[in-house]
TrEMBL record, chain A:
The chain crosses the membrane at residues 13-33, 45-65, 85-110, 122-149, 161-185. Belongs to the SLC41A transporter family. It is a multi-pass membrane protein. It comes from Halarchaeum nitratireducens. One of its GO terms (molecular function) is monoatomic cation transmembrane transporter activity. Keywords: Ion transport, Magnesium, Membrane, Transmembrane, Transmembrane helix, Transport. This is ABC transporter permease. Its main location: membrane.
From TrEMBL, chain B:
It is a multi-pass membrane protein. It comes from the Archaea. It comes from Halarchaeum nitratireducens. Keywords: Ion transport, Magnesium, Membrane, Transmembrane, Transmembrane helix, Transport. One of its GO terms (cellular component) is membrane. The lineage of its organism: Archaea, Methanobacteriati, Methanobacteriota, Stenosarchaea group, Halobacteria. One of its GO terms (molecular function) is monoatomic cation transmembrane transporter activity. InterPro entries: SLC41_membr_dom, SLC41_membr_dom_sf, SLC41A1-3. Its main location: membrane. Belongs to the SLC41A transporter family. The chain crosses the membrane at residues 14-34, 41-59, 93-115, 122-149, 161-186. This is Membrane protein. It is found in: Membrane. Residues 49-179 form the SLC41A/MgtE integral membrane domain.
Length: 186, 189
């Protein structure tokens, strides 16, 4: 595991992954560009985009960060019965189930505050947010544990690799999941 | 600790930062809605937005996680001094952030050109990304070091603070500085 704190060592460990993830995010941007018209039609969904994607990425990065530290401290084992693993995964899902309804209501209210006439009923926005959040939390847990395990097997520092991978995958999944849910509920 | 204890502990630690980041995310949404004029002035910028925002989160989230781990392991101290390791970590973050920003703009330009979509000049896109990347890099480096160190000193686990706060600050400042970048670059050109 790289422990050397120099510009070149950190860059060697970080930059290749960073550029790969940037390319993935451009894909996410292209998806977003495709749905531009829908977003402009329903401004509360547009306001929902950064907060949904961001919160999903945050849930993943908190989990990744805690697993990474547990791994550095040597207290983590990759078994479903591991307390650190299962407890943190449970907390991630619970956080999503309690936060995302509030996120939806907040996005609806923020749209109203910007002077735009609310384009959708508040319950629709809350339902979209809750359904997206629940799906994203499960995906985030799966992606995080997989990425942490991969870093562990490949002897990479999870601080350099896992958090970026998880956040970016959650970003892309966030765009895709949000629009899948919108297709069903709106 | 049992699974329930770990979960309750993780939940309690995460809530304040997540609530703050949710408010920040909503604010970022409002900023995004308000910058449609700038997005239209520089076609292709919208396609770059997720990549540029993610770069902030990636680079400075990684910096925060590195500092948190460094504090846990005793490699660095939570002191605001020009420590070699601290300076190297900060400088590497800034450099990587700028390289990734320019790369995102160039890649978006190439892909949009290949798809035959309307896109601004390569120089314009890259310049906007670099100006925004530099300004948000300065703010984020300071914010990450401050949040991790102050959090650590007050007895919070810096791990629970880093991700959400970096993403939040990154999104809000990232979008605001993109607006600045568009104005600076189009003003100079």
């Amino acid at each position: 595991m790289p422990e050397e704190w120099t510009v070149s060592a950190i860059t060697r460990a970080t930059l290749p992954v960073l550029l790969g993830l940037t390319a993935v995010e451009i894909g996410s941007g292209l998806v977003l560009g495709t749905f531009e018209a829908t977003l402009y039609r329903y401004p509360s969904l547009l306001v929902l985009v950064p907060v949904t994607i961001g919160t999903a990425g945050n849930l993943g990065s908190i989990l990744a960060s805690r697993l990474s530290t547990a791994m550095h401290l040597g207290t983590l084992s990759f078994a479903p019965t591991d307390d650190d693993l299962a407890g943190n995964a449970l907390a991630t899902v619970t956080l999503a189930l309690t936060l995302f309804p509030v996120v939806g209501a907040g996005a609806w209210a923020a749209t109203g505050l910007t002077g735009t006439h609310p384009d959708l009923p508040v319950w629709t926005v809350v339902a979209v947010s809750f359904a997206s959040g629940a799906a994203l939390a499960l995906l985030a847990v799966g992606v995080t544990i997989t990425a942490t395990y991969a870093a562990y097997r490949l002897r990479l520092d999870p601080d350099d690799v896992v958090i970026p991978v998880v956040t970016n995958v959650c970003d892309v999944l966030g765009v895709v999941v949000l629009f899948a849910v919108v297709q069903v509920l709106v | 600790m049992s699974i329930r204890d770990v979960a309750a502990d993780a939940y309690r630690e995460a809530v304040p930062a997540l609530v703050a980041s949710t408010l920040g995310g909503l604010f970022a949404g409002v900023v995004l809605g308000g910058m449609r004029a700038e997005l239209r002035l520089v076609p292709g910028l919208l396609v770059c937005v997720p990549a540029l925002l993610a770069t902030r989160g990636n680079v400075y989230g990684s910096l925060g996680a590195r500092l948190a781990t460094g504090l846990h392991q005793g490699l660095i101290e939570a002191e605001f001094e020009a420590d070699d390791r601290l300076v190297a970590a900060g400088a590497a973050a800034m450099a990587n952030g700028l390289v990734a920003s320019a790369f995102a703009a160039a890649l978006a330009f190439c892909v949009l050109l290949a798809l035959g979509r309307t896109v601004a000049g390569l120089g314009t896109l890259v310049a906007v990304a670099l100006v925004a990347g530099l300004l948000s890099g300065i703010v984020l480096t300071g914010a990450v070091v401050a949040v991790v160190f102050v959090g650590f000193r007050r007895g919070y686990n810096p791990d629970a603070l880093v991700g959400p706060l970096v993403t939040t600050i990154g999104d809000v400042f990232g979008l605001a500085f993109l607006v600045v970048g568009v104005e600076v670059v189009l003003g100079v050109a």
